[in-house]
Amino acid sequence: MPSMTSELDASVPLASSSSYTFTSESVSEGHPDKVSDYIADSILDAYLTQDPLSRVACEALCKEDTVVVAGEITSRGTVDHESVVRQAIRDIGYTDSRAAFHAGTVRVLQFFSKQSPDIAQGVDREKNAGREQGAGDQGIMFGFATVETPELMPLPIVLAHRLTKGLAADRKSGNYRWICPDAKSQVSVLYEDEEPVRVTDVLVSTQHGSEVGQEQIAEYVRNRLAPRELGDWFQPGIRFAINPTGSFVLGGPSADCGVTGRKIIADTYGGAARHGGGAFSGKDPSKVDRSAAYFCRFVARQIVKNELARRVEIQVAYAIGVAKPMSVKVDTFGTGDRKAVAQFVREFDFRPAAIIERLNLLRPIYRLTTNYGHFGKKELPWEQ
Predict the structure, then answer these.
(1) pLDDT per position as a tens digit, 57-101
(2) Range of the domain at 290
(3) Are 380 and 369 in contact (CB under 8 A)?
(4) Domain for residue 223, yes or no?
(5) Enclosing H/E stretch for 62
(6) How many domains is the chain built from?
């Protein structure tokens, strides 16, 4: 009788107590889900520009020639949603009139209402029973930091983002006109004793013009993109997979459906840390899914920068309408004194209003976060 256990390729390394390979992925700004995220964050920023106290929960869906935006918005501002949507698509680079998804011709369907008064009474300071701003929803959020990169981020996700961001930069430079907006990358890193040793595998899938062939794309990735973006981590022996299906001409929302909030692992730590499940884009900072996750990252960075631990993860939990967290948990993974770190964390105020004030979050800064990760960018306040 044949074995019911599948056989693994002997070339694929398996994890052990001291050695393992970890992989993270990134997607470009032209990926359909990221298009949706960028539209949502563009609408959010447009409202915050007019009214910093705007309450925005915006979702977007993109498919072929149609964009749907929907959610709950309460604001003193007045925003032309359709104009913002078209400009966001134009910023990304979907301006080819031959494609179904085109900034100038997409239909924009809108379905918005105001924020529920049942939620507002728990969030608004003047209505809250405790007379302070409560959490916009229940939930758990995580923050993470590690010494393995200057960004205090896990190496695989840093390198994966560099590749997709590099693709976008080359496309926008005009020097590689065959590169189209939709793309993905994956980077696998070998770890020994919890330290990154080398890059083992790189996967790049980029949408391209029909005039270019597989060999030219592979030559570009192997000899130009990867050496430049991987830097010192580019070494002989890396295994490459480049457009593995052989062709990626039709891409973006013309080929695939995009929705906000579907790239939460690429948005955060590439799977190297736990995730509470809440997405970021389209949400104003009263939503702790976003602001508390940013603050947990801020606190985690302070722990590592102060050399209290080499790697740390923070979890915070909230109840809707309640300002004080239900719990705050710290894990140093054996790289620091947990009691000392816990005492350090107690000095930080995790109430929503305090987070918003400390990080100055009532500003139109959220389009800066949408693409290539919400963490590790020095221009963002939680990274300072």
Answers:
(1) 999 999 999 999 999 999 999 999 999 999 999 999 999 988 999
(2) 139-149+262-383
(3) yes
(4) yes
(5) strand 55-63
(6) 3
